[in-house]
Amino acid sequence: MILNKNKHYTATVEKVLPFGNGALTLEGKTILVPNVLVGEVIRFKLIRLEKKKGIGKCIKIIKEAPERVKAPCVIASRCGGCQIQHLSIDGQLARKLNLLKEQLPKDTAIEIIKSENETHYRNKIQLSFQNNKDGFVCGLNKTNSNEVIDMKSCLIVNENINEVLVSLREWMSTLPSSTPLAHLVIRHSNKNEIMVGLIVSSSTFREKNSFVSAIKTNANVKSILLNINPTSNETILGPTTNLLYGKETISDTCLGLYYPISLNTFVQNNPVMTETIYTYVGELIKPLKPTLVWDLYCGIGILTQYLAKFSTTTLGVELVKESIKNATLSSKDNECKNVSFVSQDVKEFLGQTQDTPQVVVLDPPRKGCDKDVLASLIEKKIDTIVYISCSPQSLGRDSKIIIESGYTIESVKAFDCFTHTIHVETVVCFKLAS
Length: 434
Known about the structure:
CATH 2.40.50.1070, 3 domains
């Protein structure tokens, strides 16, 4: 049988890949199909065909998997935000647990903690604008496409953010087609403050006043910012940000610690589960009674400040200068006197320092740690490494390096911070073998 683009085929889904697509084999080619589960018999349309693989669109599920449920969001099958809403919560947890088991040494004991909130848990949303024949739409990109799916509300973001989206859509419907809209960022804090950042592609944006008037009708909006990004690359924020209304930052809290949030500040997106994770990390470190703890890739330094309760001295290292500026300010407000911060690349910091802590906390970006970072830490023979990961794949790669260098895994606990998505947060505690 010769495969042809745009033709319909029937096959059984053999597995689901880490990034959520189902995979099946047809005529020696791997075909990827979103929104399907292992064992399901599906009818699909072949929409892209390459030499060794293809992409299909599910037309009909002939035989459903027992763990399939009706997705609670009406645009779930098209929107790229939630990849596994069609999978039961127990099925989602099992899938994430299996992903971790595939990456970590055989027989590693892994506990997974279910999220306290299955919906409306995110404190941030980042959307794109697109202008079509019916006017502007605002939402997330369609799966495997640059098309923006119009989003009236989002099932997994804080409901106060959805209220802002209502005002935004009313304003958007009045705009001329030439309006240079690019992206939208909305952030929400535990103190119920909202920041709205509008990203435009040109400094000639003339609708500032009408935008502010529409958005500030929500009493919780405390900050409205305009960012100008004339580039067409994947970078969302440009170099210039102007305050249109309110204040430059909004205030947030975590485990009783205050911190400010800027438009480009990285914070964990599920505040409830973040407190659960940080509390657990504290429980790992407290019995060790360390004199020095390093928190590498510390972001705005909230975990750094929290761990100061269990250590004589705690140091946070982060490359982003604005994050360190906010971390330093919040540590003073929180009266954390045994905390300090360094704005520096982690690799460079490790290459220059002569100190050796008893405990290192690693919370790298999704790509994981640079090999030179791990080599420097291993050379120092640090007693305890606590690795916080948002990617099972990079965690597996880095864990192998750490274990081969004389460490053992003392404990692994996963946290379902991102229900309905493929993502999972994991904390691994490594101990240097005696």
